[in-house]
Amino acid sequence: MKHIYVVEDHPKNMNLFKMILSVITKDKKKVKFYDSFLSKDGIRLTTKNNIREPEIIVFTSMNGGEGFKLITSNKLFIENESITEIKIETPDLIILDIQLPELSGVDICYRLRKIKRFRDVPIYAVTAHARPGDKEAIIAAGFTQYIEKPIETISFLSLIREELNIKF
């Protein structure tokens, strides 16, 4: 099973990521999404799809600080499901918007690269900031890929499939 994390603060962009990732496998019923929220007990997850045996689990957050906690948590608690927690060692892919509330995507990436289990995890930067030199600076910050908005859905989907070795 593969684990993908997406941290994006704009609702329309988050919906686009969910749409793209929902067709990453041949069977849409193999991708399960969990949205996160911060509670007094820690990060909590909710889901709207009732997929029993997913091949891919996508965790989402719309806030940089919460997203960092989501990504680095070893144990995630699920609301309204028979399985109440998920234990995760290392994600297979992290997708970060650059401009996020509380903690920027660059700050998240920088912090993750200092943690041993995240040193080799592919981390994609997604940004609307496409000025000269931005790509080089973002890659130097530790990102694996630099993707400009608006996202070209077909090439983005192909890139993720290749990264995760998903045959289609």
Could you name the CATH topology? Answer: Rossmann fold
Number of continuous helical runs: 5
Q: Biggest sheet: strands side by side, in what order?
A: 6-5-3-2-4-1-7-8-9
CATH class: Alpha Beta
Q: List how many beta strands DSSP finds.
A: 9
- What summary fits the major beta sheet? 9 strands, mixed
| Second CATH tier, the architecture | 3-Layer(aba) Sandwich
Helix content: 25-40%
Task: State the end-to-end distance.
Answer: 16 Å
Outline the structure in words.
By secondary structure, this protein is of the alpha/beta class. The chain has a single domain (2-160), classed as Rossmann fold (3-Layer(aba) Sandwich), CATH 3.40.50. It is 29% helix and 28% strand. The chain contains five helices and nine strands. It has helices spanning 11-22, 64-72, 105-113, 134-140, 153-164, and strands at 2-7, 31-39, 42-46, 56-61, 75-78, 85-87, 93-97, 123-127, 145-148. Strands 6-5-3-2-4-1-7-8-9 form a nine-stranded mixed sheet, with helices on both faces. The longest helix has 12 residues, at 11-22. The radius of gyration is 15 Å and the shape is globular. The relative contact order is 0.19. The model has no long low-confidence stretch (mean pLDDT 90).
